[in-house]
Amino acid sequence: MTTTDTRDTTREHPAWLPGESSRHLGGRRVYIDAHGPLVDTVRSEFTRAMAAHGGRFVDVITDAEIVVILVTEPMAPNPAHADVAAVREAAAAAEASPLTPEGYILARRDSVTAIVAATDHGALYGVLDLMRNGEPAPGVRREQPAHPIRMLDHWDNMTVHPVMGAVERGYAGDSIFFTDGEVRRDLDRVARYARLLAAVGINRVAINNVNVHRTEALLLTDKLPDVARVADVFRSWGIRLHLSVNFASPVLLGGLESADPLLPEVAEWWREATDRVYDAIPDFGGYVVKADSEGQPGPFSYGRSHAEGANPLAAALAPHDGIVHWRAFVYNHHQDWRDRSTDRAKAAFGHFVPLDGQFADNVVLQVKHGPIDFQTREPVSPVIGALTHTNVAVELQVTQEYTGQQKHVCYLGPAWSEILRFRFAGETDGARPVADLATGGFVAVSNVGTDHFLTGHPLAQANLYAFGRLSWEPLADPLRILDEWIGATFPDADDHARAVIHSILDSSWATYEKYTAPLGVGFMVSSRDHYGPDVDGYEYSRWGTYHFADRDGVGVDRTQATGTGFAGQYPSPWRERYESLAECPDDLLLFFHHVPYDHVLKSGSTVIQHIYDTHTEGVQDVLRSQAAWAGLSNRIDSATHERVTTLLVEQVRSAGDWRDQIQTYFFRKSGVADATGRPHY
């Protein structure tokens, strides 16, 4: 089943910036006292709004209703500002506590809104805040991002890969950047996409797949002028462009005999190549590298460590303020399923924690939020807490590879919030959440393509929005963010419609978890495309993703006492909590323990009955969502309603398939019938 819209793909659903203008800014008089490249973008946003809703630029501040000011420290005197209360209050707040480069202050007094920022980046974010949320309440509000790096990785291929397609793990059509082996000539959609990203605070984008094939490798050299065109588009919205590169590029592109990172000629090749990139793109962000992972080349081929592999690239980038995002997704993907001592979950810790402190200052280790692979439920990766002398970025997955592939409703904001709030030291005073440990910021795999709705499923736009907002404010309430997105995306919907959309999305992650792999065990999906149930799809494979179900029980023993020892990678109190069968949280029980089917959960249910009950409940939940959505047919636009209606039919079918296959499989394994008497199919 495809979700790609075959209608006009040069335009798209406007997502959370309504139409081509914002009614919030219409009919206003605007005064801009600012300078810098992004001020042109600020001015264009006001011009766009005024063209649709009226209003004008004015030259004297006393006649303005919206004032945008860039301040210096201390704020440069301007007599025109003195008589405007909102400006005085915002400026006083900025001087009392200096703003970060991307921060801004919104103040409203006497029908005047002032945006005060230290840089043109902050001014742009302030204006986009005004567009998203409308006029602020009277008073003063300070906004600035928690981290300077808020990045999306696109897994886009330049040509259609025979297995992975135009976008690896993409579920929304073709690449918005590439077609037929070239960068697209028409980048209008990219410009509209950049505007959406800037509106939620994203400031960096890597445009190509981390699995860098021959054609994509040329983006670093032959295709560089076209990459520069994309960078020009992003630059107007304060977004820096990054490239995924092949570790073996000195061989693949430079004709060297070796890519050994300690060879002087290899380091020199990277230096010269990087200098050429910055000649073409002065604000280039840096490289993303997947090395020694799933067949990609890396330093292990030369007997070198990952720090030795990353640092020469970092040295080439350092003079230009560039960054290496080095992915920590490194494991043995030729595992023998009979060997229960080898554990994929342990791999990243073993490879990278011993190197803590050996990476250059401009290397960011990009660590998946969980130790396996973006599963619906995993523990937080212990690597994030263990690296105390290395920059760490937490990597999330907005594209729904294992959470329904944008055919299922699955709002991931609550899942990400749990991760970002997790504290390795427990709930003790002073314990820092993951949000604070992410010194290298936040990165996520994008879910965008050429589909009319940008993300395939119209409601999957909420995940892209939520990642942007959480990367800006990591401890924000994900349900508040959800309501922001609903209000901005469905501005004409009434209160009832908004409440229905909220209820469908709010519970959707829990619903998806109910009808898929139970109690944190993970996978149980088709090994071909990761969609739909296949309980033993990976069980005897080389990928190290097992559930070890047998006639007596299910789950992976990762304890120190009798299992792989993975639980020991956590500090106290989690080491002891995960080790203990009695203390381990139910939702991660099968990730850490192999238990009998009659093991009693903290809920009072047995494992086998939990499997039967939750998989039935999950289907019922989807059916309720389907009925609730049907009731909105005359309350939201017909195109959106039609697309979601079609996709809910598929979700109901797939959820039923999951229920039937999981329940039947475990009935046959355990021999224990459903206590309620429900039939097995």
UniProtKB/TrEMBL annotation:
Pfam families: Glyco_hydro_67C, Glyco_hydro_67M. Residues 142-452 form the Glycosyl hydrolase family 67 catalytic domain. Keywords: Hydrolase. The keyword Phosphoprotein does not apply. GO terms for biological process: xylan catabolic process. Residues 1-21 are annotated as: Disordered. GO terms for cellular component: extracellular region. Residues 1-14 have a biased composition (Basic and acidic residues). Residues 455-678 form the Glycosyl hydrolase family 67 C-terminal domain. GO terms for molecular function: alpha-glucuronidase activity; xylan alpha-1,2-glucuronosidase activity. InterPro entries: A-glucoronidase_C_sf, GH, Glyco_hydro_67_C, Glyco_hydro_67_cat, Hex-like_dom2. The keyword Hydrolase applies. This is Alpha-glucuronidase. The lineage of its organism: Bacteria, Bacillati, Actinomycetota, Actinomycetes, Micrococcales.
